[in-house]
Amino acid sequence: MKTTLISLISLFISCFILFFANGLINVLLPVRMGLDGVGTDTIGMVLSLYFIGLIFGAIYSKNLIKKSGHIRMFAGCVALSAVSILICSLHTDPILWGLMRVVLGFCNACAFTAMESWLSDSATEDNRGKLLSVYHGTALGGLFAGQFLMNAADPQESVLFVLAGIFLCMAVTPVVLSRHKGPQVDNVESMSIKRLIQISPLGMMVCFVSGVVYASMFNLLPIFAKSSAIVDFNLSLYMGFAIFGAFIMQFPVGYLSDKYDRRTVLLGMIGLSLVSAVVVTFSSGNGLSSLLILATLLTGGTLACLYPLGVSEILDKLKQSEMVAAMGTMILIQSIGGVIGPYTSSLLMKSLSANALFYFIIFIEVFLALFVIYRMGARKALPIADQESFVMQTANLAATPALDPRTEYIAPEPELSTQARTAQDLAELDPAAAVKMARAIAIDNPESGVEIASAIATVDGIDVLRFYEVMQEAAPFQMPEITQALVTTNPELAYLLVSKLAQWHPTQVVSVASQIAESLPELRCEMAKVAVEHAPESATQVAQYYAQVISDEQQALRPADREDDTSDEEALNIAAQIWDSAPEQAVEVAVAMADGLPEAAVDIASELATNFHEPDSPIIESSSQENESELAIELVQRFAEISPDTAAEVAGAVVDVVPEVASDMVEAISKGDEAKEGEWVDLIDDAPEKDS
Fold this sequence. Notes:
Layout: H1 2-7, H2 9-35, H3 40-68, H4 70-88, H5 94-122, H6 128-146, H7 159-176, H8 193-199, H9 201-227, H10 232-248, H11 250-259, H12 262-283, H13 290-317, H14 323-351, H15 356-378, H16 418-429, H17 431-444, H18 446-457, H19 464-474, H20 479-489, H21 494-504, H22 509-519, H23 524-534, H24 539-556, H25 567-581, H26 586-596, H27 601-613, H28 618-622, H29 628-642, H30 647-657, H31 662-670, H32 674-683
Helix pairs in contact: 2-6, 2-7, 2-9, 3-4, 3-5, 3-9, 3-14, 4-5, 4-7, 6-10, 8-9, 9-10, 9-13, 9-14, 9-15, 10-13, 11-12, 11-13, 12-13, 12-15, 14-15, 16-17, 16-18, 17-18, 17-19, 18-19, 18-20, 19-20, 20-21, 20-22, 21-23, 22-23, 23-24, 23-25, 24-25, 24-26, 25-26, 25-27, 26-27, 26-29, ...
């Protein structure tokens, strides 16, 4: 992690400077318009236009990155931001400033996308959550510090605009001088708003409301502060505490949301926000006070927590495969709220008073609280253990899906070495020459031979099986690694390749088959079959391994994915493959599988009973039991030992397949215990008596 942070130091410096400049701009623009006598409603309209640009920037930023690259796009957009704020210094024209706010929003969205995708390229499955935390901490630190630059000059002069432009230009320098090339960006299709509302009405409402109230408060708070005679350094201090609240409140809220029902936490947080907003209105008008600071900190902090809570609520209801597509839609709906909020609240402030900003927030949050209560009655809460983890993020800086630790991590494809690219190009022109080249490299450097083999095997026209034999001659001790590499590029040849490996390295076939099955789950049945065929003594261990793998996957499944879960069926297919290859261990294999997957025990027992009930069953022929009845009784007894709770169901399933063993099974299991015998008879009362 430390090495990763050091490699990204230039990016974090640029991030801090960029947000430092934006922290100044966010206060400077409303203050300057207020000093120039611009109406509150017009100020709200100008500030709302920022989110229009933010929406368009989020839509088109990835295309710009693909055309120009990260560094050039980041540099161009941040430079254009500097131009827009410098243009604002020339003349206080609301129309001009509104256009510049659109440009600023667009450029910021593009810059955020560049930084976040750059971070995601450096992230691993283990450290991306930490990188996201550092990123948000850096951004909020910049916003907090930028407020205090307001005291460097008179806001009615152009000095502060020039300073903002200077710092924006400075933000470009660390990234431009970095040696990092920046990653490639893939387009991700967004989920429709309608579909996401159907999945989580509450989550979408929270995201929308968060945009409305958060944008209203943090854009118009300087106007409110002016009405309370909070100016100069006190204004910076007041705004700084509001931003600090947006950062610090996420820690307790995140902790509570992971420990209790998220909707209850959301309702409690709204209640706290309502109380603090009311306190703000009563304590305003008399300058800066400790009570006003605390109430504003709590209000800003709770409003900032709405968006990450809304995201978590939505992710609770989504399948793993839907999460990335949904995140773009959540950002969009929050930005739409950001467009509506400042202008609407500014109209109220103009008609009533500056306190109307918090009246508006109170009204919206009361509506949200009622909606939360309604949804709590309409849908049962998820178990706490099934809730997604809370991830810190602010409404104006949402996490990119690749950085969010809750989304599925997809490791980037490693770049081919120069040798591998040369071999691949040669294979397209002359496959035979490429095979000879791979053989020569493997003899000289067996470890390089693995990458070369993988690269060549992707080319059409290569006889992979013959190539595999050539590599065995050149690098016999690297064959397990070469096998995995070739199977990854040619999964349809997995069975044949591992079978050949078993001929050369029989002791390694089980471990290689397991590793292939782990990286390519769709090959599990084939890998189980080939492993047991060539190492029949390992049948029980192979069954235990797959039972554990499938059990771990079941436990990791998200609630929405469970309805599509086919792991029990997969376990049944794997068990059948194993006992078909090692029929003498069929009962042991079934017991091992059922021990790891108790919920599949009935199906496994039924499938095995069906198998040995067939004429000339190899399981009966290889069994130590004399006949089918004894094997059926042994099967049920073994299952009863590992899972007493399912023993009756297992017995019923076996009797359904082999009805003639019903009486013998009841007698064997009850062992003279009349109460137990009666219980078993009741459980298998539909089974016919065995012919005497």
